[in-house]
Amino acid sequence: MRRGHRLGRQFGWLWAAYGTSALGTWLAFGAFPLIAIQVLHAGPAQVAALSSVGALAGAAVAVPLGPWVEFRRKRPVLIGMDLVRFAALLTIPAAFALGVLSFVQLLLVSVVVAAADITFRAASGAYLKTLLPAEHLLVANARFESTTWTITIIGPPLGGAAIGLLGPVATVVADAVSYLLSALGIRAAGGQEPRPERRPAARMRAGDLLDGWRYILADATLRPLFFNTALFNGLVMATDALLAVLMLGQLGFTPWQYGLALAAPAIGGLFGARLARPLVTRFGQHRVLVVAGTLRAIWLVGLTLVGPRTGGLLLVMGVQLGLIFCCGLFNPVCATYRLERTAPDRITRTLSAWTVTTKASTALRTAAWGVLGGLLGPRTAIGLAGVLLLTTPLLLPRRAAAPLAEPDPAPSRA
């Protein structure tokens, strides 16, 4: 980021809160499956259900929260969702200490955390749009993206070491505390947030739950981008488990080599995020969005060529580096484009619908590709996902959209 872009004290607190909670999440990454396996002696079906069913149920719970949050101030919602995640996660070490931890509790906590995470993401996008002028949104989103990839580099090794020394329950405590610190940071941001207009009806109607999807599908530029994002994220995430099976099983790589192959290329995401604003300034938002969205689709199919030993490890790292670099460039541009194309009174519902669809799509495709991996082998299933990814650029917006009409300015106090 260029040094001259100072986004203010409130954004600084929001940024710090985001980084703190993201670090806690990565420290505890994989803790739930490990607790299920090591503490509760769960089988493969239960571990798979913990990941897929928890995410799907959390997405379903989050659906009515989008319209509910739309007509409330967003900062208290952000603080509330952080505190919900803090309290839910803290029940796990408490139950473990008392000897009453169960698989059902793990599943319920994963549902609550997933729902709170979706609601937090939707409310944070709306809060960011009220916090900053439009010309600073790309800088802010690029900083969030840079933070994500920086923590992706350092978080898993630290989390792995913490799990090895203290056990997975300890990392869940760290994750819970990170949400508490995030809530305190957002509260410290202060400032006056404008009160949203009151909803016309006293009660939420069933049709209100679909408002976010209606808005997306009615917009000629958001609609293709929505389908592109859901399809791309679902296919990429669906291959993670298959790549682990291929590398750790058939090809004989050690766990540290597998971790290195996935963590080291995250530096590409950091560089991609830092280049987002200069490239948009030079070439325009739409061109960068389309080019980065096209380039990120070509890499995954290369994983079908991975072999054993050093050559195979370098191939995985090279493919992941290219993929993550393009994603690091695409993501902040896409997030800014989406905020700019969404009316202020529809942001929370739209972002909630977007996130719910993405998470549900990822969970379903992960389950489907697990079945395909068992039937066809992990290499063939990864190749099929890579070929399907080559079609995703067809879903990118064809042309730059006209900006949304700004609302009439409020009358002056004078």
TrEMBL record:
Record-annotated membrane-spanning stretches: 12-35, 47-71, 83-101, 225-249, 255-276, 288-307, 313-339
Main localization, broad class: membrane
One Pfam match: MFS_1
Entry's Gene Ontology cellular component terms: plasma membrane
Membrane topology of this protein: Multi-pass membrane protein
Origin: domain of life: Bacteria
Presence of keyword Transmembrane: yes
Recorded GO MF terms: transmembrane transporter activity
Keywords: Cell membrane, Membrane, Transmembrane, Transmembrane helix
Localization per record: Cell membrane
Identification of the protein by name: MFS-type transporter involved in bile tolerance (Atg22 family)
Biological source species: Nonomuraea polychroma
Lineage of producing organism: Bacteria, Bacillati, Actinomycetota, Actinomycetes, Streptosporangiales
